[in-house]
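To close the chapter, one final illustration. This time we ask the reader to focus less on the individual chains and more on the assembly as a whole: which components sit near each other, and how the overall shape emerges from the parts.
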Amino acid sequence: MDAGPNFDGKLPPLWHYGETEYDLISTKTLGFWLYMLSDALIFAGLFASYGVLDHNMNAAGGPVAAQVVHPVAAFGQTVAVLSSVLAYSLATVALKTGNKAGVMLGIVVALVFAAIFLVLEFADFQTLFAMGATPERSGYLAAFYILVATHGLHMMFGMLWMLVLLPQIWRSGFNTDVVTRMLNLRLFWQFQASVWVCVYVFVYLRDSIQ
Amino acid sequence: MTDPHHPEPDPLAHPEVRQASLGGYVLGYALTVALLGVGLFGTRSHSLPPEPLLVALSILAVFLLLAQAMTFFGLNFSRYHVWKTVSLVLTVPLFILSIGLTVWMFHALDTVTMMPEMPGMSIQPTTLQ
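The assembled structure is written out below.
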């Protein structure tokens, strides 16, 4: 490409504002989307190992899947995680009109439901631990705990992200940085709903009928 | 970097912000809770034998993931979302290969290498009985 002066003797502009402007929000949300896809591949690996270890032989004489999963109790976790995702999603609906109070209320409600989810999950783990169903008991149990707790860990980090975001919204309002972070968190949070669908169907429901 | 002659565009006008949809989110929520409830009812009522039930549950999960892709993530082929959709479509084969091939490989390994169970040899679960 010729970088010399134009016919009028002026140097060509290096970049244009306007039409060709760098779209910061789209670039960052696409980058975060690609990160979420790689995160989904971590879950794919965990589901693959769960699929392999979900076998009576890998229970090593310990509790088998049908004794470990309780789909009726886990339905409470299903409602909690989805309500949290809905609340956060509705916060981004309030974002469209710049409604700061609505956005913050949505995030706080999302935090409450996420906390309920984690309390239910820990209570479930405690019951299993009390019965001797600990991760080191068998290969099956190790796969079960790692898969379910990895999702729980994502929920914890999402809550941390919300707690960091709330004061930023309060202080800075909806500037490009804060809005981009909110959009990426929406992606992260809705992704937890999709992962939970897989966990609930392929761990809790599938194993309870075997 | 903000150019004083070209003020930063309003972030709330960005298509990623505008895509938020009350109806879409409520629909995605209601579909997911309702269909997972149906799945739970199906497993509790034993209305189907185990094999067809597993197939039905898998179809239900795939349907819900597709519904969430559209209602939550807002995936479509518009100018602003096409690359998300394309990158997801390119990643789906990786999910299928990593999960499907692993499970198939170990299932085949189990069938080929393990001795058939003899009476009295099977490992019985004991802890939670």
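Chain A has six helices and no strands. Chain A touches chain B through 72 residues (CB under 8 Å). With these observations in hand, you are ready for the problems at the end of the chapter.
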